[in-house]
């Protein structure tokens, strides 16, 4: 049986060489943010058999950066992209393979030179990490 993401998630269109081995990644593009998601699989595992913290950090960073773009457009602020200046992740619990991981940006504060964001990472709806990012507006 082929995995089906929860509604309204569809295939993520902003792929990159970093995330290519982790596909399929899904997105729920909302009016105010992007929410990313994936089913935790073997390709995402660390040596202990659970989703790697680096995967969690990278996808939280991705979701927050994309969400900053949504917010900047809504506020009429111009930009040509973002560069991560600072990223912090607090790991709250250990997710397991087979769970649905969701990367949801909860807070965005845009500015002309910096954008700040915070995200919650959930495994089957339960928080497993909190992330904070500062992004340089390009």
TrEMBL record:
Gene3D superfamilies: Hotdog Thioesterase (3.10.129.10). Keywords: Hydrolase. Residues 47-135 form the Acyl-CoA thioesterase-like N-terminal HotDog domain. GO terms for molecular function: fatty acyl-CoA hydrolase activity. It holds the Pfam family 4HBT_3. The keyword Hydrolase applies. The keyword Hydrolase applies. InterPro entries: ACOT13, HotDog_dom_sf, TesB_ACOT8-like_N. It comes from the Bacteria. PANTHER family: ACYL-COENZYME A THIOESTERASE 13, THIOESTERASE SUPERFAMILY MEMBER-RELATED. This is Thioesterase. It comes from Caulobacter endophyticus.
């Amino acid at each position: 049986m082929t995995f089906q993401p929860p509604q309204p998630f569809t295939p993520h269109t902003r792929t990159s060489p970093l995330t290519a081995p982790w596909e399929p990644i899904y997105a729920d593009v909302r009016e105010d943010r992007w929410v990313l998601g994936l089913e935790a699989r073997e390709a995402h595992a660390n040596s202990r058999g659970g989703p790697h913290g680096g995967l969690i950090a990278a996808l939280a960073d991705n979701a927050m950066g994309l969400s900053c773009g949504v917010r900047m457009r809504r506020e009429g602020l111009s930009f040509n992209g973002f560069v991560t200046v600072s990223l912090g992740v607090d790991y709250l619990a250990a997710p397991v393979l087979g769970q649905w991981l969701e990367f949801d940006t909860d807070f965005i504060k845009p500015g002309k030179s910096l954008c700040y964001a915070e995200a919650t990472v959930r495994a089957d709806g339960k928080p497993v990490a909190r992330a904070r990012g500062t992004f340089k507006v390009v």
